[in-house]
Design a protein that fits this description.
The complex is a heterotrimer of chains A (276), B (134) and C (138). Chain A has eleven helices and four strands; from the N terminus they run αααααααββαβαβαα. By secondary structure, chain A is α/β, with parallel strands linked by helices. Chain B is an alpha/beta fold and 134 residues long. Chain B has five helices and five strands, in the order ββαβαβαβαα. Chain B has a five-stranded mixed beta sheet, sandwiched between helices. Chain C has 138 residues and is of the alpha+beta class. Chain C starts with 9 loop residues before the first strand and ends with a strand. The chains are: A alpha/beta (276), B alpha/beta (134), C alpha+beta (138). The interface between B and C is medium-sized, with 29 and 30 residues.
Chain lengths: 276, 134, 138
């Protein structure tokens, strides 16, 4: 980030004056939502780390600014989690620039320009960290959602069912696959019914994932049957040239259950003395 | 020297692979098993791979070979206890283990091989289906 | 082909059967460090086992270089398999061979490639082969 000829500029400034100006310059929303004591402590720690970094004469992406970046990272991440906007967070950094120039007076010197650029870079860094933190939150939430929406249920001793609902994407289908296979082992079940009645559309990729699941289950010693194939889906499958080979398929979950119970060695009998 | 013990229970040979095998161990196992199947006139072989975290093409090939050898010697081989992660990987790798019958665990594998009806019916469907190529 | 440009990470010689197992164990350790899911670890270690065996048998011995790697959002594992063996004469053919019955023919390259996220081959007849694989964690 170039030379830091602004070391002297910063070193000459009165810390208290800068911190006061900085706090004053912060966006009203930030001041309103963060307790004054905590805010002052944050700003003070940041400023001290900033001055230490500046004194080194190195650029803002160097090791000398590690502590500044670490503090900014923490700040961004906690602000992101609390719902602050990225602008609010980054502008807290730009407010330092206003404070510094307020205290030292604007001269337009090249050193002041360098200082300005250095703080801009730190502001950008804050923005980057903010974005990364937000992405992590979203990823975590979507993973949780994924787990909730792919239940595997036990229909009978040794018979599991996976009712798939909604749109199937790669990530979701993989989670289903792994959950089903693990449950086959955990419950000692040799049969599974994968029901796609609630699935909107089936494309080649989804079909391939389903086929891989069935083949993997076979290698483990369990057999899967796919049910709930609506006429539209059946037509799509044929049109796409997807071959289910010798994997059993049924139109309804009921048909699949009848088939599996039979395979598993059960006879279902209607009692002659039934009431009704 | 046999690193992997082969047990005989009635007419069935049981092998439980507990360790991370190097290729020479795999070959040694294949040789010992083939010899034992012949000498004991076993009706079946149950190979328990529930402790294996990795099954690569070398082990896969050994399993297919043993299945073939046992068939020629009028015995049946069932591989049991494959872990989900291993099954998913084999499918992705494109290894279909042709001729290898599978079951969830040793108990069902034994039932399949001895022809005991109760548990056998449950695993039979899975067994026959493994003969096709992916 | 050797490891003149690799600095960090570890090198495992591949000269015997036991070394292939050592490669698997070393890859497992790194994959766990990279926070890889169980299925992804299994895929990576299996691919590494296949490629290490190739290095031993087709490459007439060589070595593997393993290291943790990072991109902006995730950690991953990079493994380079290098040998000074005969090299692969026809790469197109090597990648076309399907690994169907596993009868021992072919190098199993297309299968291994499906198990990882990045797969590069650098080979020359008479000079040797160098295969680089990368798999990312969460």
């Amino acid at each position: 980030m170039g030379s830091a000829g602004y070391e002297q500029l910063v070193a000459d400034l009165d810390e208290t004056a800068v911190l006061e100006a900085w706090e004053r310059n912060l966006a009203g929303s930030v001041r309103a939502q963060v307790a004054p004591d905590q805010l002052r402590a944050e700003l003070s720690a940041l400023y001290r780390a900033f001055v230490a970094g500046v004194r080194s004469g190195d650029g803002t992406r160097s090791n000398s600014f590690d502590e500044v970046r670490a503090l900014l990272s923490e700040l961004s991440t906690s602000r992101a989690r609390r719902g602050f906007s990225p602008t609010e967070t980054a502008s807290s950094v730009f407010a330092l620039k206003d404070a510094l120039f307020e205290v030292m007076g604007v001269t337009g010197s090249s050193d002041q320009l360098e200082l300005s650029r250095a703080i801009d870079d730190l502001g950008l860094f804050t923005f980057e960290r903010f974005a990364a933190a937000r992405e992590a939150v979203i990823l975590n939430q979507s993973e949780q959602l994924l787990e909730l929406s792919t239940p595997v249920v036990k229909l009978w001793d040794g018979i599991l069912a996976v009712p798939l609902v909604g749109t199937l994407d790669s990530a979701r289908t993989l989670v289903v696959m792994e959950t089903l296979l693990q449950m086959l082992v955990d419950t000692g079940s040799a049969h599974a019914i994968i029901d796609i009645t609630g699935v909107a559309a089936v494309d080649t990729q989804v079909a391939q994932h389903l086929l891989k699941t069935v083949h993997a289950a076979r290698l483990m010693g369990a057999e899967c049957i796919i049910s709930g194939i609506r006429p539209q889906i059946a037509q799509t499958v044929v049109a796409l040239g997807i071959e289910f080979g010798d994997i059993a398929t049924r139109a309804t979950l009921a048909d699949a259950l009848r088939h599996v119970l039979n395979q598993a060695g059960y006879d279902v009998v209607l009692r002659p003395d039934r009431a009704s | 020297m046999e690193r992997i013990p082969i047990y005989q229970i009635g007419n069935v040979l049981l092998v439980s692979i507990q360790i991370d095998l190097q290729d020479s161990d795999v070959i040694a196992l294949q040789d010992s098993l083939s010899e034992r199947i012949a000498s004991s006139s076993a009706q079946g072989v149950v190979i328990d791979i529930s402790a294996l975290e990795i099954v690569d093409s070398f082990v896969g090939r050994m399993l297919s070979t043993i299945a073939g050898v046992s068939r020629v010697l009028n015995a049946r081989t069932v591989v049991v206890g494959m872990r989900p992660a291993v099954a998913i990987t084999l499918v992705e790798l494109g290894l279909s283990l042709p001729g290898v019958e599978t079951a969830l665990n040793v108990e069902r594998g034994m039932a399949m091989v001895t022809g005991s009806t109760a548990a056998a019916t449950a695993s039979d469907t899975a067994a026959d289906a493994n003969d096709d190529v992916l | 082909m050797t490891f003149s440009d690799e600095v960090d990470g570890q090198i495992v010689a591949i000269e015997t059967d036991a070394d292939v197992v050592r490669v698997r164990q070393a890859v497992r350790a790194l994959a766990a460090q990279a926070g890889m899911s169980l299925v992804d670890q299994t895929k990576l270690i299996t691919a590494a086992s296949e490629l290490a065996r190739n290095t031993l048998i087709h490459g007439k011995g060589g070595a593997a270089h393993l290291e943790l790697t990072r991109n902006e959002s995730r950690a991953g594992v990079r493994v380079v398999f290098a040998d000074t063996g005969p090299g692969i004469a026809d790469l197109t053919l090597a990648f076309e061979e399907g690994w169907t019955s596993g009868t021992g023919l072919g190098l199993g390259l297309p299968g291994s490639r499906r198990l990882v996220d990045a797969f590069e081959v650098d080979t020359e007849v008479g000079r040797g082969t160098r295969i680089t694989i990368v798999k990312w964690g969460r």
